[in-house]
Design a protein that fits this description.
α19 links the parallel β9 and β10. The chain is 64% helix and 10% strand. The chain is an alpha/beta fold.
Amino acid sequence: MLKKLASHVRQYRRDALLTPVMATGEVLMETLIPFVTASLIDRGINAGSMPDILKYGLMMLALAMCSLFFGVVCARTAAKASTGFAANLRSDMYHHIQTFSFSNIDKFSTAGLVTRMTTDVTNVQNAFQMMTRIAVRAPLTLICSMVMCFVTSHSLSLIFLVALVGLALALVIIVSMASKRFSAVFQKYDDLNASVQENVTAIRVVKAFVREDYETEKFNRASENLYRMFVRAEKIVTLNNPVMMATVYICILTLSWLGAKQIVAGSLTTGQLTSMFSYVMSVLMSLMMLAMIFVMLTMSIASARRITEVLDEQPDLNNPAAPISVIPNGQVDFDHVTFAYHTGTGEATLKDIDLHIKSGETIGIIGGTGCGKSSLVNLVSRLYDVTDGAVRVGGHDVREYDMEALRNQVAVVLQKNVLFSGSILENLRWGKADATEQECREACAAACADEFIERLPDGYNTHIEQGGTNVSGGQKQRLCIARALLKHPKVLILDDSTSAVDTATDARIRRAFATHIPGTTKLIIAQRIASVQDADRILVLEDGRVAGFAPHEELMRTNEIYREIYETQTQGGGDFDEAKMSDGGDRA
């Protein structure tokens, strides 16, 4: 895990290596200062020698300046290395997530991925900076101060050596107790972020149903739970300070008493005792910093595991060794296709689908909720792979194509339409990056989007808010259709993408397809039979199986399900699901 994370340092490796070198220089300079201070007191001040005072004073100044230089450079390189490491880590995680298939993304919640790329990366960044700076400085200070203490006085060094062992044991106990708490804390961050994300995304629904108080209470529960867990963990960590201060005071009192006796006896000088005080404080503070490092590492290890889970996740879908990059035509074949979202863990969504669609045909697809309509068309652009059988486009298995080339030629207007923040033109050019404004206008005309765009104050330069919140559902659908048309695809899939437009506009869009993209194979999922009855053939799905596949007239003669739906919708309105409910009620 550590090796994998360390590989993301890359161009900041020089700064990461330079930081501990500078920290070592800083520690050495700081360790020598008390030693020179002892000489200044004994040979200069106590002896009344002005030349010695000047000499040792200048030496202390030089050591302090060197220590300052090393410290400044160390802080700068540590900050640069840690922030660069975090930037690389976030970038690499983001790019890796882009390679995920839908099934990969299904393993991680959106809130969980956001937490991993923000809070978890920040924790790892802080730990990395501590490891390159404080984790080098603290042990070196501890060792150097211990050595200088024994050089100054063996007998007095034993005092805080005993205290050091006792303090180390206490800190180990504290850290081990806190680590369990912190490991559980970060599991709750996902719950808190999920609550915020869900509320913001659905804020219109929340206000429409006057559920602000309910959502606030739900957020407060998640926040309070996180607060309590953090407080329990921090309470344990705060024991560091009283244990540390108690040890410091005991050492200072003992050292003062025994040191004063040795000064009176002539076996120790005043300057040496002063330097001993400095070294004792350095040793104990170093141990305190080590305890902080252990706590930070405990927090960051949990975060590191969560980050590594994302980086280790392997995309379920990959390009073949020698991918095909050209799609000959829009012919689509389903050869006895079976598909399940979780292989071996549940019932198949699609069962033995055997369909053959000619290039340029318009195919309508209808069926009840959960019958597998969206799952079927998702297989064409290889958003998922089949469990059994094969899906072919242009005569080749979709698994033989380069995925980018395939998806460029299989345009999909998904059931959940998404627009991004930016102008209308910028959103349209998702379909074709170099599309001219005239091409965008023609696509919008075919999608019947031009009529409302031209009424906007800024026309095609009108800014779209994130998620398309400043346009209606029908306008959003038409913009998404226009965006797909700009690709001039071999296959166009509309997944219930005209449900928010009126029937007259729906009919005009379908007529425009015939003239704008006559050679494109069109797969149109709809609930209204009126939206698909003019298609070359209509596929009726029921419980993941083909219940009928023929033109409208033939289905009216041969398919009871289709005929009953048609009669229900033409006589009293309603969609596919309502027709099935009515049918089920009559039969009961």
